[in-house]
Amino acid sequence: MQNVIVTGGAGFIGSNFVRYLLGADHQVRIINLDALTYAGSLENLKNLPASERHIFVQGDICDRALVDDLLARYQIDTIVHFAAETHVDRSILGPEQFIRTNVMGTFTLLEAARRYWLDEKANPVAPQEVRFHHISTDEVFGTLQPDDPPFSEITPYAPRSPYAASKAASDHLVRAYGHTYGLPFTITNCTNNYGPYQFPEKLIPLMILNALQGRLLPVYGDGQQIRDWLYVEDHCEAILTVLRHGQVGESYNVGGGNQPTNLTVIHEICDILDELQPNSPYSPHDQLIQYVKDRPGHDRRYAMDITSIQRELDWHPRQSLSSGLARTVQWYLENPSWIDAIHQQQDYQGWLAKNYGDRETTSNQS
Ligand code: NAD
Ligand code: TYD
Predict the structure, then answer these.
(1) pTM of the model
(2) What are the structural domains, with CATH classification, of the chain?
(3) Would the pLDDT of 74 be above 80?
(4) What is the pLDDT of residues 311-326, one digit of tens each?
(5) What is the pLDDT of residue 127?
(6) How far apart are CA 291 and CA 218, in angstroms?
(7) pLDDT 10s digits, 227-276
(8) Closest CA to 22 of 45, 39, 40
(9) Would strands 289-292 and 217-220 be described as parallel, antiparallel, or unpaired?
(10) Cα gap 188→198, rounded to integer Å
């Protein structure tokens, strides 16, 4: 792994991965291809270690000519593919962009990689030294009942939101390119991430930022939905582990091994803020909790069996949910200028109005 394209490297997990990889591998050169949609920002890439080994290219993964040019110009041997539309609520209100980026974008990258790595006689990179690593999600497996066993690598796909369906389609394409053309690939399907630089449309940063400003904390439905949460740096370590030691053609489930309800997570965030900001006029922060109309088709529970990556590759999450949440809240408190930049974004204010403005409040506390 010498010359790596990271797609979506200005987004939440992508930017954390760029930072992590530059620190963990002192040879690698990263070409960071990101369109800078509402979810991506150069603010996420400030103060990188070894920034001389990081080249940022603003561009679209659906732009085949651009991808071809980058592959050849930088003699790329590895693609780590994060770029995607990622928010379930946005996919419900506007699915088209999800199909374009997540399905067509992944297809474009796969085609370009196939041509460059496997077809071109003049290609200076040996086919056995290349890798297409695709970042995916547990949501492709659908939803679980309370007593169902967790998702494993062989659980059949059953996506239920436009986001999950578009990610499932992209996973299928990656596997098809592996089996049909021999493209060397690996996939990681990960649970919900949280940590520094996460855009505050997702549960944890939304709750932290709302609580800091004394805004209501909108709980969808009864708040008893369950997610498995992973601190983002643990995810980055898992990806690098799979890149270095994973078996080509395999997918690995990655997760934090916890299953709190949304309400538990929100209360824990409030408790941390109460402790760190005892003089806040909004303390105790859980007085801000407000039940609101549920998300349509809301998946009830996700849980991941991570035995395979633990046993085979000796990867384990380092942060517990409590330690990860404490770090995360601290990071947002220490980075007010990052928060200001997002609050000034027109798109963000528009999103809050669109998703929450007319959302019915409920007294659903069952
Ligand atoms: P994000 O929404 O924070 O960032 C996505 C990035 O992709 C942004 O920087 C955006 O500008 C870029 N992008 C979007 N469309 C693009 C295009 N057409 N061309 C180039 N760049 C484009 O996403 P994230 O939360 O960091 O998620 C990254 C990946 O991890 C996604 O593939 C997602 O499905 C997967 N994933 C996320 C989670 C999670 O909890 N966030 C969990 C499991 C898997
Ligand atoms: P989210 O962070 O959007 O991730 P995902 O839907 O991909 O799991 O949401 C996490 C959980 O939090 C999910 O069950 C929906 C819920 N949620 C709320 O209750 N209120 C909110 O305002 C948001 C954004 C999410």
Answers:
(1) 0.98
(2) 3-196+230-254 (3.40.50.720), 203-224+259-298+320-356 (3.90.25.10)
(3) yes
(4) 999 999 999 999 999 9
(5) 77
(6) 6
(7) 999 999 999 999 999 999 999 999 999 999 999 999 999 999 999 999 99
(8) 45
(9) parallel
(10) 19
CB 54 within 8 A of CB 30: yes
* 366 pLDDT higher than 70: no
Q: Which two tokens stand for residue 95?
A: 């699915």
218: Cβ below 6 Å to ligand 2? yes
Q: What are phi and psi of 261, to 5 degrees?
A: -75, 160
* Residue 296: cis peptide before it, omega within 30 degrees of 0: no
Q: How far is CA 276 from the centre of its chain?
A: 27
Q: Which of 87, 98, 202, 356 to mutate to test the pocket of ligand 2 (most atoms within 8 A of CB)?
A: 202
Residues taking part in catalysis: 138-139, 163
**Which of 155, 307, 297, 287 has the alpha carbon at shortest distance from 225?**
297
- Alpha-carbon span 334 to 274, nearest angstrom: 16
Question: Which pLDDT score, from 0 to 100, does residue 128 have?
Answer: 79
Residue located nearest, by CA, to atom 22 of ligand 2: 218
Query: Tokens standing for 143?
Result: 């939803």
Q: What is the rounded average pLDDT for all residues in the chain?
A: 96
Nearest to 190 by CA among 225, 242, 145, 144: 242
Whole-angstrom distance, CA of residue 69 vs CA of residue 71:
6
Q: 238 and 190 in contact (C-beta within 8 Å)?
A: yes
Query: Residue 234 contacts by C-beta under 8 Å, 6 or more apart in sequence?
Result: 256, 317, 318, 319, 324
Nearest by Cα to 91 from 159, 187, 157, 32: 159
Burial classification of residue 206, based on how many CB atoms lie within 10 Å of its CB (0-12 exposed, 13-18 middle, 19 or more buried)? buried
Of ligand 2's atoms, which has the minimum distance to the CA of residue 163? 7
Cβ–ligand 2 distance for 88 under 6 Å, the answer: yes
